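FAQ: What does a ligand-bound record look like?

Like this one, built around glutamine:
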Amino acid sequence: MTARPLLNRRLDGFGTTVFAEMSALAVRTGAINLGQGFPDTDGPESVREAAVRALRDGRGNQYPPGPGVPALRTAIAGHQQRFYGMDFDPDTEILVTAGATEAIAAAMLALLEPGDEVIAFEPFYDSYAASIAMAGGVRVPLTLRAPDFRPDLDALRDAITPRTRLLLLNSPHNPTGMVLTHDELTAIAALAVEHDLLVVTDEVYEHLVFDGEHVPLISLPGMRDRTVSISSAGKTFSFTGWKVGWVTASASLVAAVRTAKQFLTYVASGPFQYAVAEALQLPDSYFTDFRDDLRSKRDLLATGLAEAGFEVFAPQGTYFITTDIAGLGEKDALAFCRTLPERCGVVAVPNSVFYDDLDAGRTQVRFAFCKRKGVLEEAVTRLKRLAV
Ligand code: PMP
Ligand code: GLN
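The answer part, i.e. the structure of the complex:
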């Protein structure tokens, strides 16, 4: 027996995601891994210590409460108020999940009936197609196109049918780095209201917007009761292994998502939940320093990739840069990424696996820049060998 192909798009036969395949390649070859999006430096020492303290004090070593520990739910509410001026009831409107990945899966399982259509902008993060498929939904991709990857709002309007149940949005957007503008969000909100759609928003890169600012769709008029907003501590605090994510939404939507979530993991990450509660209360300077550091790394890698012959699509947010390799004489991103470690000791990710429209992303390759400066500089030096 093999798994349903939709659970493993484009990599049939490999039995793994593109991230796992490329990470395994990095380990095997010793190449610099700019593939999977994880930082090479852990988050703040004080947050790590908070996790150790929780473990030692016996907080979270046994099943935490299903919705998440109260301290974390209160801290999430405080974060939404501090950054977005929004009020959420920690008891009924917040749900802690095993990373954003579980939140997305639980939202699809909770909110879709088999055959319901889900509109999402491609390229999309690989778990979207799988989560929609597991829920029996039908994904309807709308293609974001280089060089600026702006959403086509007329195409969005045209894609809505009586079967459309929800929009699955991601801003800042992985892998392109596109950040939806206030005007785009307003237009999307108007369509959701007009057609009575739910919207699930993946906002895991909310603190990584380099140009402009992050606006949660749920804060716009008409969206408070139809949006499931998802985020995660992994990206913001550089602890991707802790898998602490959360949902903020109306009480009825949170209750729906919780109903699915309780049969996925039920609960996870007990002691880490206490540590993330402290992380969310770090001063504003933590969040601005984090963003400024990554902005300078974006600039370093973008410049280096351009010098190495890549066409660079500078991201407005996230810690990824999408490039085009056609100028290097390359025709296929997946083949390119499978040989890149051998050729020059760097690992990247082919965007082509994130598209249904294979042609749209055939020569796009993504590089992560959440790495130490020296590592990025060495990667650039190596990549420049490609052109010679
Ligand atoms: N959504 C996007 C857009 C991502 O890039 C990722 C990867 N971190 C996730 C969701 C999953 O987040 P988590 O690790 O918290 O499950
Ligand atoms: N979100 C990470 C990325 O986009 C990868 C997470 C995963 O391995 N599934 O690189």
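Follow-up question: can I read anything off the structure? Yes, for example: Residues 17, 19, 36-37, 174 surround glutamine (ligand 2) (CB under 6 Å).
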